[in-house]
Amino acid sequence: MIRRLLTLTLLTLCFIFTYAQQKKEILYVGTFSVRGSQGIYSFAFNRAKKTLTPIQQVPGLESPSFLGIHPTRKFLYSVNRGKASENETGGSVTAYTIDAKNGKLTVLNTRSSFGAEPCHISFDKTGQYIFVSNYNEGNLVVLPLFEDGLVGNPSDSKKYIGNSVNPERQTSSHLHSALISPDNRFLYAADLGTDKLYIYNFNLKTGTLDDSKQKEASVKPGCGPRHFAFHPNGNYMYVAEELSSTVATFKIDKKNGDLTILQDSVLALPKSFAGKNTSADIHVDPKGKFLYMSNRGYNGLSIFSIGADGKIKLVGQQTTGGNTPRNFMIDSKGEYIFVAHQDSDTIAMFRINAKTGMLAPVGKPVKVPAPVCLKMIALP
Q1: Nearest alpha-carbon partner for 201 in 211, 189, 190, 215
Q2: pLDDT tens digits for 264-292?
């Protein structure tokens, strides 16, 4: 009897300790300004109950679409289609503080994105700079960040000129995303309009981009590189090819940043699918075992296994129960995937099978007007 009581007491204490150690997790949702969207939405994620509870709606400039959370977790940034002021052209970047207790956002300042239709934002590993991709302008802008989170004036920018073989989508440069390498030495930028990946040496002291040894790598003509993801070991890059619904795999030379193609255009859709599709987002799970890519038209995620050599193999698909799954995210523990359905106004959640990588729906979708970007944070 005493032994049983001791066991129950230990289990209770363990549960209390575990519960106390759980950090609040907040999901932020960037949206397009249609169908009554109120800007950026935030939800509290209860991991035990597998639920999302609304916290805040933050009105702002037109279409605060793509979001980024600062490495310190103190600030959030959005790129907006709306102008920073009447005297400026193009889009803008807005900085927000994140309340450490409840995750609520407060606007800090807004700067021009120095280009039309900004579509992506990312950080260097130290959080001193952000990289903004302007889709219609075909340019990349580096903006310094102050310690208080405010956005400064550009420290560098790159303008791209070129085209490729698709007469509808590739008549000019369309820079779609840029990410720093895991070691913070090289910046890679994907240009859908030219079928190129640009490679730069990143100067942390000056916030400038210098030509690397290779300068650029190419995918097959007409594929349209959109977003890309690094393997956790830093040796491989996986590129979502929007126009061909395929994935390109590159080997990364960590010494000089060079890219060498490992796999050309691995098909992401079932062979039986005959409809129109464009691929969008792409992510590797935290353990580096599986790769996922979203598909608009097929309306599902493609699932790939990743071999020890970095090569991928298509193992299946998961329909996501909504229209136009543009952006999605994998939680930091690799347990769940959250999918934003741009055209059916929902966010769906799926449980990841750790052994197979396959997905299973969890709960009911959450309603949000035109969700296009998802970012999650665990509060300090």
Answers
A1: 211
A2: 999 999 999 999 999 999 999 999 999 99
- Of 262, 264, 242, the closest CA to residue 252 belongs to 262
CA distance 377 to 70: 10
Answer for the pair 69, 76: CB distance below 8 angstroms, yes or no. Answer: yes
Cα–Cα nearest to 132, from 170, 181, 77, 169? 77
| 21, burial (CB in 10 Å: exposed 0-12, middle 13-18, buried 19+) | exposed
DSSP β-bridge partners for residue 187: 180, 200
109, 114, 117, 119: which is closest to 151 by C-alpha?
A: 109
Tens of pLDDT, residues 120-162: 999 999 999 999 999 999 999 999 999 999 999 999 999 999 9
* DSSP conformation letters of 292-348: EEEEETTTEEEEEEE-TTS-EEEEEEEE-SSS-EEEEEE-TTSSEEEEEETTTTEEE
CB 312 within 8 A of CB 257: no
Pairing of strands 246-252, 236-241: antiparallel
Task: State which amino acid sits at residue 308.
Answer: A
DSSP-assigned beta bridge partners for residue 122: 131
Q: Which residues of the chain have pLDDT under 50?
A: 1, 5-21
DSSP H helical segments within 212-315, as ranges? none
- Token duo for residue 184: 């913070």
Residue that is written with structure tokens 């003509």 in the block: 221
Using the Cα atoms of residue 60, residue 62, residue 63 and residue 64 in order, give the sign of their dihedral: negative
| N-to-C CA span, the chain | 41
Long-range own/partner contacts, residues 352-358 (CB < 8 A, 24 or more apart): 352/285, 352/290, 356/315, 357/285, 357/289, 357/290, 357/303, 357/304, 357/305, 357/315, 358/303, 358/315, 358/316, 358/318
272 - beta bridge partners? none
For the chain, how many helices (H) and strands (E)? 1, 28
Residues 6+ positions from 15 with CB-CB distance below 8 Å? none
